[in-house]
Every structure is written in structure tokens, then in C-alpha cells.
Amino acid sequence: MKLNRIVIPSFNAQNQANPNLTLIHGWGAESRVWEAWATEAFSKDYTLTLIDLPGFGDSPALPNSPTLEADWIEALVATMPEKTHLLGWSLGGLLAQQIALQYPERVTRLICLASTPRFTQNDGWTRSVSPKIINDFIKAIGLEISSVLKKFWRLQLQGADDSRALMKALTKHMSSRKIPSIVPLNQGLILLKDMDNRDQIKHLAMPTLWLLGERDPLIPQDIRLNLADLQPNAQIDILAGGSHIPFFSHPKETAEHIQTFLNQVDPKPHAKL
Questions:
Q1: Residue 249 a catalytic site member
Q2: 146 is catalytic
Q3: Residues of the chain scoring pLDDT < 70
Q4: Mind listing the domains of the chain with CATH numbers?
Q5: d(C-alpha 124, C-alpha 93), whole Å
Q6: What CA–CA distance (Å, rounded) separates 20 from 67?
Q7: One of 31, 52, 59, 90 is an active-site residue; which one?
Q8: What is the value of pTM for the model shown?
Q9: For residue 132, what are the contacts with CB-CB under 8 A and spacing of at least 6?
Q10: pLDDT computed for residue 273 by the predictor
């Protein structure tokens, strides 16, 4: 099954299509949350594909299944261009890592924005979110979805300069969004709680950028120490003052980090075999 996508074509001076850049958003969001930012930042040089996760935005939901992670990845891959740079934010980053691992021939470069190979704490993995927070969200969305989503937006902007003003602007920006149903919201939270790519990311075959917010309340910047051990060849950048929604709190700086990475010449393989 294919998901909803927004495609923004781009052509060079010879009227040839520019390289693809595909964006996968995070939990509780949809492609429209970063469409304007991505268009301004990248549409001159890249053909953009923004994919709505299953059950979010205009994408159909997938049924509950014991193969939930595989089902979501299959749907995303079916919607992607054949060859593309891949940018995943938060939950989108977790999924993008698995896509890059399973379909390395499809992904040219990988950008994990405000993301991590494991979102929740366990067995010594402490620079991440307590499972209790995820479980509390799972319980809460069964009672009132809209207020929970607003709470999550507020949490992501904590620590950013002018967080109140940013929250007000983000609420206005997302006022026309479609509220997801409880099924895809629960599915996304389950993936956030259970996905674990730590032992696999050393096998990523393409250049990888981890772009972390200095003030991200969900993924502390100290996780860079873990990432350096798990994927020694990756590039790890810290966005000064950045929140968990860095493209909203620091749009220009976030775009510059990503554009610089995409413009790099890569002379050697990156996978650790």
C-alpha cells in the first residue's frame, strides 16, 4: 500500500530533475508541519517527497499487526522515489534508519534529525526517554487525543528560546491539520517504545548525519557519545539552542547543517562490516 505524499519537483538549468530528498515526519505530526520549511530550504536543488506516516495527515492507517514495524517500513518504501537522500525526524528517523539498513541501494545519504537509534531507556541506555512517559501517552490518548497532541508539541519545544511564542506559532501553523485516530497514534507510540537499531547502525552503508538539538528535552545532546561508539564513521552535529523541532525553532541553521552535509564529497564507504 502506498501512503500519501507531497511531491515538489525541481529541475536544473538543463531541465533535468534534481536529486531526490525524501522527508519522513515524527509522531503526532504530518508532512505539512515542515512543508514550507523544506520548500524554502531545499526545493532549489532537490526534488522533494514528503511522506505522511500511516494514519497521519492524508495517509490511510494500517491495521494492527504483530509485524507493525515491517508493515510501516514496507508502506514507506513503496511511496519513496527509487533513489533518494532520506531525512527522518524523531520517529521518522528511527524508521529511516531501518529503511537505509534494509534498502541501502535506495538511500544515497541519511539524515537523522532529532532522532536516535533507540527512543526509550533500557539496559544502560539512559540518554533517552523513560518508558513511563510513552506509556502515559498511550493511556492518555484513549481519553482525549487533541489535548495530548498539544501537550506533546509543548514538550518538544521545552528549553528553546521563546518556547511560548514558538508554541503559539506552531499551534497556529498546525491549526488545519487532521487529528489522527487512536489506532495510528498508538501504533506510533509502540514503535517509539520498542524500536531498537543500536546494534545495526554500524552497518549503514551510506554517509549518515545525526543532527541533534542542544536543548532537546527528549533526546539529550550527550547521546552523541553513544552514537560515536555505535557508528564511528557517522557525522554528528549539535545545533546550538535547538529543540526537538529544530526546523521550527531554528529553521535557517537546521537547513544549513543539512545542506552542508548533502553537498559533501564522500570518497570512501561508511559501513563498518
A1: no
A2: no
A3: 266-273
A4: 5-262 (3.40.50.1820)
A5: 22
A6: 29
A7: 90
A8: 0.94
A9: none
A10: 38
